[in-house]
């Protein structure tokens, strides 16, 4: 339930047993109301009744006769029935790579309805707060000098808040299900008996190469794209399977393993002059691409000081890109600085 009316400054009394009123209070506060909370009939004093301009009786409070009598004739009284527990829910929202510009409309709507947002996207906490006014924004992500909240703890917070009747949005980079532990979080919500939905996001695996003008598939060039994690080096058999499959290889989380990755592909028979690229910090003002070949890319990346987050793309599709066309000197120096191509 979203409150569309602007209640700025309106003194509102919310009456109801503890635990049932949290989300009603939050929604009225989000609409600008100044909320007084009464958890039992004894809290509804004369002074309170004189002051408030609207009273909301939540769940069983609608049947508290002494409260109705005390409020009679003083202000409008609204009943807010409580649906059967659990009332809370979990929504996993993919934020896309980079800033929040690539959120879907469904994601924007989920944020607008959120009571709590658990976010990894530290740089944009202010933007999150703007899209989720009134929600508590909890930062559970990584940043230098700050340890990420462990996965189990994130799931515990998510379940606990939703069980308390709140709409919890878990905002995740890219798509929740692409190397994002979205599956585990959905399982945790399901095990807790909570309704859970997933709003997909644009994955960096496709969106970030695209932002540099690299099409991950191209008619007549590549009709296969394989997305792999570079978190650990490729096993020999995996590299052989990838090369046998052909097409485009997209590696996420692979910058610290760029040398073993390219070496494994070369050893598995991929041509040394296969075009390859690193696209760094996609969709940010610092976006940059480094293009070269399977052989030259690791060295170019070191010279260019490339770091995470970056997407590595290997395959003939790189030759079709704007950054390839703009590269500076074919073999000598494949570094192409670019904005969003
Ligand atoms: N769920 C995310 C991926 C999480 S794994 C998604 O669908 O995009 C994190 C990895 O994603 C990073 O190591 C990097 O390889 C990639 N990545 C995410 N955002 C990026 C960005 N803006 N620019 C480049 N790479 C990015």
Automatic annotation (TrEMBL):
Catalytic activity, EC: 2.1.1.107
InterPro entries named among the record's database cross-references: 4pyrrol_Mease, 4pyrrol_Methylase_sf, 4pyrrole_Mease_sub1, 4pyrrole_Mease_sub2, CobA/CysG_C, Siro_Cobalamin_biosynth, Uropor_MeTrfase_CS
Pfam families, sorted: TP_methylase
EC class of the enzyme, as a word: transferase
Signal peptide residue numbers: none
Chain ranges of the Tetrapyrrole methylase domain: 89-297
Keywords: Methyltransferase, Porphyrin biosynthesis, S-adenosyl-L-methionine, Transferase
Listed PANTHER family: S-ADENOSYL-L-METHIONINE-DEPENDENT UROPORPHYRINOGEN III METHYLTRANSFERASE, CHLOROPLASTIC, SIROHEME SYNTHASE-RELATED
Family as reported in the entry's similarity comment: Belongs to the precorrin methyltransferase family.
The name this protein goes by in its record: uroporphyrinogen-III C-methyltransferase
Organism: Terrabacter aeriphilus
Lineage, broadest ranks: Bacteria, Bacillati, Actinomycetota, Actinomycetes, Micrococcales
């Amino acid at each position: 339930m979203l409150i569309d009316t602007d209640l700025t400054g309106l003194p509102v009394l919310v009456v109801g047993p503890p635990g049932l009123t949290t989300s009603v209070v939050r929604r009225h506060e989000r609409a600008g109301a100044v909320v007084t909370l009464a958890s039992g009939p004894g809290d509804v004093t004369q002074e309170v009744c004189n002051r408030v301009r609207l009273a909301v009786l939540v769940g069983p409070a609608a049947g508290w006769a002494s409260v109705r009598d005390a409020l009679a004739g003083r202000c409008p009284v609204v009943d807010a029935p409580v649906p059967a527990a659990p009332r809370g829910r979990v929504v996993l929202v993919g934020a896309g790579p980079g800033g929040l510009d690539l959120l879907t409309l469904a994601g924007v709507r989920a944020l607008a309805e959120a009571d709590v947002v658990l976010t990894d996207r530290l740089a944009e906490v202010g933007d999150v707060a703007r899209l989720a006014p009134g929600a508590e924004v909890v930062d559970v992500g990584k940043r230098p000098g700050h340890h990420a909240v462990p996965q189990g703890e994130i799931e515990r917070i998510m379940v606990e808040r939703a069980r308390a009747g709140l709409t919890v949005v878990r905002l995740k980079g890219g798509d929740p299900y692409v190397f994002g532990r979205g599956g585990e979080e959905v399982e945790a919500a399901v095990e807790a008996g909570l309704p859970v939905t997933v709003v997909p996001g644009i994955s960096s695996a496709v969106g970030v190469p695209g932002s540099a003008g690299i099409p991950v598939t191209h008619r007549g060039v590549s009709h296969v794209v394989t997305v792999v994690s570079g978190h650990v080096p490729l096993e020999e058999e995996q590299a052989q399977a990838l090369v046998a499959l052909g097409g485009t290889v997209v590696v996420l989380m692979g910058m610290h393993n760029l040398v073993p990755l390219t070496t494994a592909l070369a050893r598995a028979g991929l041509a040394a002059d296969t075009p390859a690229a690193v696209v760094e910090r996609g969709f940010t003002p610092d976006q940059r691409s480094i293009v070269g070949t399977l052989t030259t890319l690791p060295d170019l990346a070191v010279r260019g000081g490339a770091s995470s987050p970056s997407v590595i793309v290997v395959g003939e599709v790189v030759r079709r890109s704007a950054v390839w066309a703009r590269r500076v000197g074919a073999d000598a120096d494949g570094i192409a600085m670019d904005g969003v191509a």
